[in-house]
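Per-residue structure
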Amino acid sequence: MMGQSFGLPTGAIVRRIVLPGALPAILSGFRVTVSIAIVLLVAAEMIGVERGIGAFVLSAGNRYDTDALMAGIVVLSALGLAMPWVVGLLERKLLGWR
C-alpha cells in the first residue's frame, strides 16, 4: 500500500518491496528443500533406475565392492554438503541488507 501511495508501478512494488521481504523465507525453504530433494533423488534412483549415483551405490553394496560403495557415499556426501553451501552463498549475496 505504501508503494501504491507513492505512485510506484506494480512491477516496481513487486521488485523493490514484495520480493526483498519474501526472499529470506524463500531461501530458507529452499535450503531445506534441497537437502530433502537429494535424499529423495537417491532413494528413487535406488528403486527405479539402472543408472545414477543411488543405483551405483546400491549395486556396489550388493556386490560387496567397498571401494565403489565408499566412492559413491563420498560423492553423495559432497553433494549433500555443497548444495546448502551454495544456498548460503545465495543468501549472503541476495540478503546482504539483513
